[in-house]
Automatic annotation (TrEMBL), chain A:
Positions where Phosphocysteine occurs in the chain: 7
NCBIfam families in the record: pts-lac
Keyword presence, Cell cycle: no
InterPro entries xref list: PTS_EIIB-like_sf, PTS_EIIB_2/3, PTS_EIIB_3, PTS_sugar-specific_EIIB
CDD domains reported for this sequence: PTS_IIB_chitobiose_lichenan (cd05564)
Keyword Phosphoprotein: yes
Protein name: PTS sugar transporter subunit IIB
Taxonomic lineage from the root: Bacteria, Bacillati, Bacillota, Bacilli, Bacillales
Pfam families: PTS_IIB (PF02302)
Domain (PTS EIIB type-3): residue spans on this chain: 1-100
Keywords, ordered alphabetically: Kinase, Phosphoprotein, Phosphotransferase system, Sugar transport, Transferase, Transport
UniProtKB/TrEMBL annotation, chain B:
Record field: transmembrane: 32-53, 73-92, 104-123, 135-158, 179-203, 223-243, 250-269, 296-315, 352-372, 403-423
Keyword Transferase: yes
Subcellular location: Cell membrane
Superkingdom in the source lineage: Bacteria
Residue ranges occupied by any PTS EIIC type-3 domain in the UniProt entry: 8-423
Topology with respect to the bilayer: Multi-pass membrane protein
Keyword Cell membrane in record: yes
Keywords: Cell membrane, Membrane, Sugar transport, Transferase, Transmembrane, Transmembrane helix, Transport
NCBIfam families: cello_pts_IIC, lacE
Gene Ontology molecular function: transferase activity
Recorded coiled-coil stretches: none
Annotated source species: Brevibacillus choshinensis
Organism placement in taxonomy: Bacteria, Bacillati, Bacillota, Bacilli, Bacillales
PANTHER family reported for this sequence: LICHENAN PERMEASE IIC COMPONENT, PTHR33989
Record-given protein name: Permease IIC component
Length: 100, 448
């Protein structure tokens, strides 16, 4: 399971990555989770199974969705509450649900 | 207040979204990012060159010889002074990428057309002479840096548009099968490159016959002058900050959206200061408003100057929720990342907290601008400090080693703390009441 996160500079999403990795570990799930800036997504999306956007870059959703659809990868925006509270567990579950 | 939020949602957000998604603005923003690592590295050398310790300069010349500073600043020249070349390449690359045509060729063509627009002459005063003479056969460094930034950007957009239109119309030389792809690609670029060069060449010849003499002069007279005047004014800064805060109030990355339009202007204002500072570190710097002005003096803790709010949450919060978010936010907050506060508290879409979130940074713009304009606080020296550098340190470094830069950051911290305090109190009280009500209902619902 490869989960790619993106926000403007990949800074705040990288905070979330740590929490999600912990949540994955607790679940015994083998996942690669990483964060990049929005303009780097194109170089990383081919390695991803799912792409999640930080809510502050949700204006990029339609553009990112196009990239995702071309590769059969689900793309969506992380809920603001989970994002703000850095709820790794919820976001991980959200990613797993999307992938299904 | 709900009316205000729905106004933001229905009116401001769609416009912001369209601006943020606009291909050319995106290409400019992403292309400019290419220069940032270079500027930061160049800045390191700039800082080392001008450490404000008495006797430092003599000490250095004692060890490394008289020319130590010139030699130390070689990397500064090779980073700041070629900004336009890098941006020209970067913007064309990013735009071509969006059109899904070969970005490398587009970048190369863009650099060539930028140089084609630039006269290969410079004015030089020989030693002992009093008048400058024109010297040919040189690439003028002055126009490769921030002075050429807008020309490079405009030509990058123009050349890439021509390039991709011709490619997309399939007016290209196709090589037979068996020719290596890299070779085939360079032939594909041949016709569009020829057209671009022809267009820019004709443009230059045409302009040379007018009183403007060069594309650089036209752009600087008609575009850069007015833009700089707007971008360097306190009024312009307040409007920019207001927009950033309104967008963030909706949960959109305001700084990225507004920066997409304003960064080229703020970057060239910053470099004007750098050029003066490098020539004479005690000289008066021309601009207050630069890129660092916002990153380091207005947005301590992230957009909205939320570091003070986070400190309040840690020291004074009574509700568990505020305490928790405070603890979660302080680490990233010191490095000016504040999404846990904006989304977690939340400030986004929160009619109460949006008020200080908008007022605080605007107050800081006014205070900082006046303090620098009146000469109480050193202006940003053009040293590119990364926006993630913690306050106090960043203010010292970005002013070229002046304590007043740090002092203003402290003062600004206190101002934002005072502005946030009453609103924080109200919100914390409300959260505490909610928490108490919950525990109470939990207690009463337990069967006895």
């Amino acid at each position: 399971m490869n989960i790619l996160l993106c926000c403007n500079a990949g800074m705040s999403t990288s905070l979330l990555v740590q929490k999600m990795e912990q949540a994955a570990k607790d679940k015994g799930l083998n996942a690669r989770i990483w964060a990049v800036s929005a303009d780097e997504v194109k170089r990383h999306i081919d390695q991803a199974d799912v792409l999640l956007l930080g809510p502050q870059v949700r204006y990029k959703l339609s553009e990112m969705k196009k990239e995702g659809e071309a590769r059969g990868i689900p793309v969506d925006v992380i809920s603001t509450t989970d994002y703000g509270t850095l709820n790794g567990k919820n976001v991980l579950e959200f990613a797993l649900r999307l992938k299904k | 207040m709900t009316g205000f939020i729905s106004f933001l949602e229905n009116r401001v957000m769609p416009v912001a979204g369209r601006i943020a998604e606009q291909k050319h603005l995106q290409a400019i923003r992403d292309g400019i990012i290419l220069t940032m690592p270079l500027l930061i590295i160049g800045s390191l050398f700039l800082i080392i060159g001008f450490i404000p310790i008495p006797g430092y300069s003599d000490f250095m010349s004692g060890i490394f010889g008289d020319k130590w500073l010139t030699k130390l600043l070689y990397p500064v020249n090779a980073t700041f002074d070629i900004m336009a070349l890098i941006v020209g390449f970067g913007v064309a690359y990013r735009l071509a990428e969006k059109y899904k045509v070969d970005p490398l060729s587009a970048g190369a063509i863009s650099v060539a057309s930028f140089l084609l627009a630039t006269p290969y002459t410079t004015m030089f005063t020989p030693e002992g002479a009093s008048t400058a003479v024109e010297v040919g056969g040189v690439i003028p460094v002055a126009l490769m840096g921030s002075k050429g930034l807008f020309v490079a950007m405009i030509l990058a957009l123009l050349s890439t548009e021509i390039y991709r239109k011709i490619i997309q119309k399939k007016i290209v030389i196709t090589m037979p099968d068996g020719v290596p792809p890299a070779v085939a690609r360079s032939f594909v670029a041949l016709i569009p490159a020829a057209v671009v060069i022809l267009v820019v060449w004709l443009l230059r010849i045409l302009i040379e016959n007018t009183s403007f003499q060069s594309i650089h002069n036209i752009v600087s007279d008609l575009l850069v002058g007015p833009l700089n005047a707007l971008g360097s004014s306190m009024f312009g800064a307040i409007i920019a900050v207001l927009l950033v805060q309104l967008l963030w109030s909706l949960g959109l990355h305001g700084a990225a959206i507004v920066g997409g339009v304003m960064d080229p202007i703020w970057l060239s204002l910053m470099d004007q200061n750098r050029a003066v500072f490098q020539a004479d570190p005690t000289g008066e710097l021309p601009n207050v408003i630069t890129k660092q002005f916002f990153d380091l003096w207005i947005y301590a803790g992230g957009s909205g100057a939320t570091l003070a709010l986070v400190v309040l949450m840690i020291l004074r919060a009574r509700s568990e929720q505020m305490k928790n978010i405070g603890r979660l936010s302080i680490g990233p907050g010191l490095f000016n990342i504040n999404e846990p506060v904006t989304f977690g508290m939340p400030i986004v879409m929160n009619p109460l907290l949006i008020i200080p979130f908008i007022i605080a940074p605007i107050a800081l713009v006014i205070v900082s601008y006046l303090a620098m304009e009146l000469g109480w606080v050193a202006r940003p020296s053009g040293v590119a400090v990364p926006w993630t550098t913690p306050p106090i340190i960043s203010g010292y470094l970005a002013t070229g080693g002046k304590i007043s830069g740090s002092v203003l950051q402290l003062v600004n911290f206190v101002i934002s703390l005072l502005i946030y305090y009453p609103f924080f109190r109200l919100w914390d009280k409300q959260k505490l009441a909610e928490e108490r009500a919950e525990t109470k209902s939990a207690e009463t619902s337990v069967p006895l």
